[in-house]
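User: Continuing from earlier, I have the next pair ready.

Assistant: Great, send them over.

User: Here they are, in order.

Assistant: Folding the first of the pair now:
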Amino acid sequence: MSEHNLCQEFLSQVSDYLDNLVDPITCEELERHLVDCTNCRIFVDTLKKTVYLYQQREADIELPGGVRERLFKVLSLDDLVR
């Protein structure tokens, strides 16, 4: 399989990989790819940092009254309104 195809395969599973939802064999294959592929390694590191920063920031932000509900309604995420 070409390097490009390996990267595409990796990127198609990166979310499940970061959420620890892939089986152990797939996890080993993905980690092996990360050792060999600088681009995917940079992507994963950046994604992890982005998620971390978002999670830290999310706790600090309080939207003005009703904005959250209106936003979630527009985005069709009504079931997430607390």
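And the other member of the pair:
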Amino acid sequence: MINEQKKNIRKEITEKKSLISLEEKKAKSKILFNKIEKIPEFQNSKVVMAYWSMPDEVFTHDFVLKWFNEKIIILPVVTGSELELKVFSGLQNMRIGEAYGIEEPIGVSFTRFNEIDMIIVPGVAFDKNNNRLGRGKAYYDKILNKTQALKLGICFDFQYLKNVPVDQHDVKMDMVMYE
């Protein structure tokens, strides 16, 4: 039952995302990141895990490029069924990843999970109780369980729902923000 509910929400959100142009996604993302940059949790963070966005996600490229010289920005790399973390050190140190065909950082793995202050987490949907619905691979849930960092879920306003179905392995966010 829960799996069917999750599948239906993923389908519904995918359809809504397809109706928004890349330019509109970028504009909405800029508004969202302007809000994030103003919160003390971000301002006080030294190590921030973000992600290099796919075309249907909140656009993170400008944010990562803006902050990587001032903070340590960690990005995930899909390795098999796991996420490996790497420090972002500029566009020249990126390559196209195998799993999703998006750019991923190359270089040394980051394994000091206790040093991560904030994790900016993508999701298909979030709810008012800070629950997160991901793409279904549990990549993020595995990482989120390894750290005490603030977990900030980010999404577009139409991805913020009244309730999302959760399983016992789903990790709750500390905060959720949308534009």
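Worth noting for the second one:
The two ends are 31 Å apart (CA to CA). The chain has five helices and eleven strands.
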